[in-house]
Design brief:
Elements (H helix, E strand, L loop, with lengths): L4 H57 L4 H10 L5
């Protein structure tokens, strides 16, 4: 069954509208990914800075660094 001109126009507009909607969503996804990557980088830098302070405090106190132990057990497959 052939489509009428009105039906063709409707489906053509639907195609155009949904194509634009998909493009807009893709843009939003890319923007969100960029924000997440930036936030992750900030958090990783903050963690590194805090870790340096923690490591230094352990060294100054002459105590075992529990974070080193925890990381070693995680890397070795141990549960914590």
């Amino acid at each position: 069954m052939a489509l009428s001109k009105d039906q063709q126009a409707f489906y053509q507009k639907t195609l155009e509208w949904t194509r634009k909607e998909i493009s807009d969503i893709d843009t939003q996804i890319e923007e969100e990914l960029a924000r997440v990557k930036e936030k992750l980088a900030e958090l990783q830098n903050a963690k590194k800075a805090a870790r340096q302070i923690y490591d230094g405090a352990c060294a100054r106190l002459g105590i075992e660094n529990e974070l080193d132990k925890a990381e070693a057990s995680q890397e070795g497959g141990g549960a914590n």
